[in-house]
Every structure is written in structure tokens, then in C-alpha cells.
Amino acid sequence: MSVREATEADLAWCLSTDGHLDEAALLFKIRAREILVADSDGVPAGLLRFDLMWSAVPFIAQLRVLEPYRRQGVGQALLRAVEEGARARGSIAVLSSIALGSDRTAALGWHEAMGFERFGDVDGMFPGEQTEAFFVKILKP
Fold it and tell me: Which of 106, 109, 116, 121 is the most interior residue, by most CB within 10 Å?
């Protein structure tokens, strides 16, 4: 398993995998170096797209691992890469959130297993979704 920054050559794959941003927005994120791709034997297995809060703290905006690669450490490898980048920028934390509403047991379990702590919820943040749960992971030096 290797993790790398997405390139413009990954745009079509990112577009089909991300599920939220359009082509122009994904191209912007690729050029900003805010999308990571995990490869398994040279084949894309997952992506992590993040935003920078306060110019330094990564907020995981999207984490997708393709079905055949789940439970094989892909999400963990992507998170480690984000953490390394955060430390390089002088950040002491990584942020994340998930929409609660449908069955989110796996997403909640992943956050807990990766060392995130839930620090708050916001109700009615997005149309049709009841609650958005927010998480923080404090990075050890």
C-alpha cells in the first residue's frame, strides 16, 4: 500500500470516486495538493480529500475506500499521510466529521479506532441529515 498526492492524471478516477465535488472543484483540490490517493499494486484503492482550517489544520472532507480494499488498512494509511503533512505544517491536530442519519456504525468505529475523539454535534447542518458529528485527533510529536 502506498499513498501519494493525486495528480491531474487522477482527475477522472477522483471524479468517479469522490461523489461530491465536480470536475473543476476536484481539479482545484488536486492542484492545491489536498487530495491523497492510496494505491494497492499500482491500482487506486481509496482517496482522502481535505481542507485546511486556519491554513494548517487538515479537516477530512472526504474519505473513500473502494469496497474490495476495505478493512485492509487503506483508510489508516491515508490518515497517516494526512497526519505527516499536518505535522510538517506545524499542526497539532486533524479534524473530521460524519453525517449521522443512516447507519454510520462503521464510520464511527473507524474514527474511534484511529484515535479521534468526538467533540460536538451540530443538528440540521445539511438538508435531509439530522446531525453532523465532529471529531478531533490530537497529534503526538
Answer: 116
**How many Å apart are CA 109 and CA 127, to the nearest integer?**
24
| Residues 78-129: tens digit of each pLDDT | 999 999 999 999 999 999 999 887 677 888 999 999 999 999 999 887 777 6
- Grid cell locating 83: 497526519
Print the domain residue range for 78.
Answer: 2-138
**pTM beyond 0.90:** yes
Q: Residues of 2-32 as b/e, b for ≥16 C-beta within 10 angstroms? A: ebeebeeebeeebeebbeebeeeebbebbee
The CATH number for 37's domain is: 3.40.630.30
Q: Name 53's Cβ contacts closer than 8 Å, sequence gap at least 6.
A: 59, 95
